[in-house]
Design goal:
Length: 312
């Protein structure tokens, strides 16, 4: 039917209220999404770093430094930087010359698109890609493999899921470590505990890399930097509580470690892009990863890791 010939009463008849939709917007530097129920995320293309995750009330769940580099001049301090293919620095030959935590957090990713589901359980998935052809030439020379990284950030009313799929597109096997370096926002670190690490062994990075055993929940009273191997399976949550109340639960997929980090006073002072200087009180990093050894990926193989962070 010709539009102009439609009876005018059709457009005048009041219909059901239009259902609010998932909204996604993007520009040259970031992608933002909001659910009809109000939850939102903001992802920087540099590093595919999730910078912000707000609940339906607009409360921020992630910590981001006031001095975070958001212009691509370095990795962002805060949110969820992606660590790949090395955690920290290592003298392991293939990664020995790479910068701390590798290059994924300091490369510009491509926004590949969105998938949405509407209705009672609306959600949105944003996909980002980084391939060996698109990383900086210096990095290509230092880590000369062929790979594709596909990173998906899924927002649902109570959950944030971040999934990294690593594919070896080349002829040569490579080894990697990876970790999802989430900075959670808290009110006061001294009221924070992490449960789920009871009886886990850990390497204490602030005490000469000694191996220790965790007893009870993890509490914070000084610089904390530990690589845990949780005793519980990845499907059982690590829980961050504050003043006795659960704040976040974290379920891991294919990530057998969890780093727990807080810089405390002195390290915060010494970290140029950490502002304000007393912000160590307001952050805790609980970082699912596979960082204890090296994961080998053979020609044509893929490996998928993920974390699901849930609100109470
Ligand atoms: O300063 P960055 O390179 O971002 O690293 C921040 C932190 O990341 C992890 O949590 C490491 O275990 C820490 O040793 C490191 O200080």
């Amino acid at each position: 039917m010709n539009r102009a010939n439609k009876p005018s009463t059709l457009s005048a008849t009041p219909g059901p209220e239009p259902q609010a939709q998932v909204t996604v917007s993007s520009d040259n530097s970031r992608v933002s999404a909001q659910l009809p129920t109000g939850e939102s995320i903001d992802v920087l293309l540099h590093g595919a770093t999730v910078l912000s995750w707000k609940d339906a009330a607009g409360d921020e769940k992630l910590w981001l430094s006031d001095a975070a580099k958001l212009d691509g001049s370095g990795p962002a301090r805060g949110g969820i930087p992606l660590v790949f293919p090395v955690f920290g620095t290592s003298d392991h030959p293939p990664v020995a010359k790479l910068p701390q935590h590798g290059f994924a957090r300091n490369s510009r990713w491509e926004f590949l698109g969105k998938s949405t589901s509407e209705g009672a359980t609306s959600g949105v998935k944003l996909d980002f890609g980084l391939s060996s052809d698109n990383v900086d030439e210096t990095i290509q020379a230092l880590w000369p493999y062929k790979y594709t990284l596909l990173y998906s950030v899924t927002l649902e009313p109570k959950n944030l899921v971040t999934t990294l799929v690593i594919s070896n597109d080349g002829e040569t096997s490579f080894e990697f470590q990876t970790l999802l370096h989430t900075y959670f926002k808290v009110n006061n670190i001294e009221d924070v505990q992490v449960t789920g690490l009871e009886d886990a062994s850990y390497i204490d990075k602030v005490d000469g890399l000694k191996t220790k055993a965790q007893s009870g929940a993890v509490t914070f009273s000084g610089e904390t930097d530990r690589i845990y191997t949780p005793a519980i399976p990845p499907s059982e949550p690590l829980v961050i509580t504050e003043a006795g109340k659960p704040k976040f639960s974290i379920v891991r997929q294919n990530l057998e470690n969890a780093v727990v980090f807080n810089p405390w006073v002195e390290k915060a002072k010494a970290t140029a892009d950490l502002e304000p200087k007393d912000a160590w009180k307001n952050l805790v990093c609980v970082e699912p990863g596979t960082v204890g050894g090296w994961h080998q990926l053979d020609k044509g193989d893929t490996f998928e890791v993920a974390q699901t962070i849930s609100l109470p």
